[in-house]
Amino acid sequence: MITEQLMRPGRFDVRLVSNAPYRVWNAVDQLDHIVITPTRLADPKQFADASILSAAIYTGVITGKPTKKSFVGQGLAYWLGTEDGRGSIYETAKTFTNDTLSTVIASLLPSSITSGTITNAGTTNLYYVFRYITPREAIHFACRCMGAEWRINPAGTFDAAIASTLFVTTPTSVIVKNSGGRDGARAYNGIDANEINIAQDADGYTTKAIIVGQKGDGAEFTVGTASAASVTKKDMFNNTVVFKRMVDAPDTPSTSIANLATNVLAQYPEKRQHLTLTSDTYAVPTVVKPGDYVNVFDQEAGLYDTTRQLRWRGEVISPVKLRCKEYTWPVQRGMGVYVRRSGSTATYTDITDYVAYEDGQETSWVVGSGRNDPEQDPTLLGPAFLGKNADILSRITDPDWVAYTPTYTNITGGAGTFSYRLRGKKCEVQVAFSAGSVTTSGSFVAFTVPSAVTVGILQPIMVANGTQGCFGRVMTSGVVEVYKDPNGATWTSGNSVAALRSYFGFAVT
Q: At 439, is the pLDDT very low, low, confident or very high (cuts 50, 70, 90)?
């Protein structure tokens, strides 16, 4: 059986017939790939690797051989990061400053997956620093921030775009009971449902998303929020219900946090509708892919929407529009099953004749959102969610430096670079000022701290002016006074402020 999931690796289990020769099982190794085509190829050796992969409906990574007659593994998203947090972890930070989706994906993709079609239209730009997490975590979080989604095709190519570009949002498939086949006049694919089970809940309902992000981004920590446009539900005493959701995103800067809040809020509507159903669909990836929307109609089960109507088999029906999140389909007779081994030239082993086909097994579907939807899991909303990566990231997350422009006193000319960051109730400042001169004798020179902070107490500091050490102090007014030498001597008009350098910290309220 093959399980495919939206933006998840999924899994597979392929079994061999009892009399399959040992050489077939022995010819397959861990981290080879299983490739399945909807019909068998006459001889895979007569086809180019790219041609076989373009014809495939599924490609997965073989991770184990639990018995002498079976192979198990996961989809190609395995190469982005494993469930225990392994993968091409970024040991060197990946920094993005107002970068587009295509730029971000080009930088984050590992060499084990190649870039396919990346569409920037409709997405926002990204400000972020990724480090010590897998590509799967980084890409998933980046796409969430930017309003995009992603998929990996059987050929190993990676696509990313907004959902309406990447997936079918105007359904071409109709899931109904006892009415499969195709309505040729209207180009709808009919999927005959054997059983439809429906569940509804409000367990994830969120009226306001609150994202707690990076420390030191102009505040003690960055916070982004998004609120529902309207809330119709009431509590016991007729008050508008309030369900605020907190999300820990420790490395998210202020420039990305509002988009993240908006996209998180959209995942948790007032009502979640979750369907599980079965069908006898052959080669289901040729009809629907996880992420596509489908029409579902079962009037007796309450699955209808009077605002939507279409003509199906000569009748008018009012189906609900729901998204396919996952399905599990059988490997059936008529398909081609091959094991692909990478090399300078990929080689294929045809195991089609030895597969224990799952004819008669049903395809099971998960449609809509519910408690078991991975995208609804609050532990997966942050930038790290595989293995122990979230715990590790929480210990190493460090605020980025934020540039600011101070106001100068008693200095003319020159130019400087000033930046700051906040660590809890402490503000750290970096100063690099050059080529200035003193305006008035008998006083100090000064610059201001960031306007976003309030100095808690007077703080003595040391500042370098070239090779000369200078006494300074951070005043509660937000002004940093700098004197001519370590003893606090005043400046003389025309004195050079040639290379003012300092790194200091002070308490904030």
A: very high
Q: Looking at this protein, which amino acid is placed at residue 37?
A: T
Count the neighbouring beta carbons within 10 Å of the beta carbon of residue 256: 28
Contact at 8 Å (CB) between 464 and 470?
A: yes
Q: 378: pLDDT confidence band, cut at 50, 70 and 90?
A: low
How far is residue 262's CA from residue 396's CA, in Å, rounded to a whole number? 27
Q: What is the DSSP letter of 49?
A: H
**Cβ within 8 Å of residue 186, ≥6 positions away:** 310, 311, 312
DSSP letter at 298 equals B
The pLDDT score that the predictor gives to residue 316 is 87
Nearest-angstrom CA–CA distance, 294 and 303: 12
Whether the pLDDT of residue 455 is over 60: the answer is yes
**472 pLDDT above the threshold of 70:** yes
Name which of 107-116, 247-256, 372-381, 383-392 the model is least confident about: 372-381
Cα 60 to Cα 339: distance, rounded to the nearest angstrom: 10
**Other C-beta atoms lying within 10 Å of the C-beta of residue 188:** 19
Three-class SS state of 325 = strand
Reading the block at residue 225, the tokens are 């929020």
> How many angstroms from the chain centroid is the CA of residue 161?
12
Query: Using CA atoms, how far apart are residues 229 and 261, in angstroms rounded to an integer?
Result: 13
pLDDT in the model for residue 251: 64
Contacts of residue 174, Cβ cutoff 8 Å, sequence gap at least 6: 183, 188, 189, 190, 191, 294, 295, 296, 297, 310, 312, 317, 319
Tokens representing 169 are: 């949002």
Cα distance between residue 21 and residue 509, in whole Å: 75
Query: So what's the pLDDT on residue 177?
Result: 81
CA distances from 263 to 85, 370, 386 (A): 25, 18, 21
The model's pTM is 0.77
Residue of 178, 382, 194 whose CA lies nearest to 277: 194
Q: Are 35 and 59 in contact (CB under 8 A)?
A: yes
State yes or no: pLDDT of 283 exceeds 70: yes
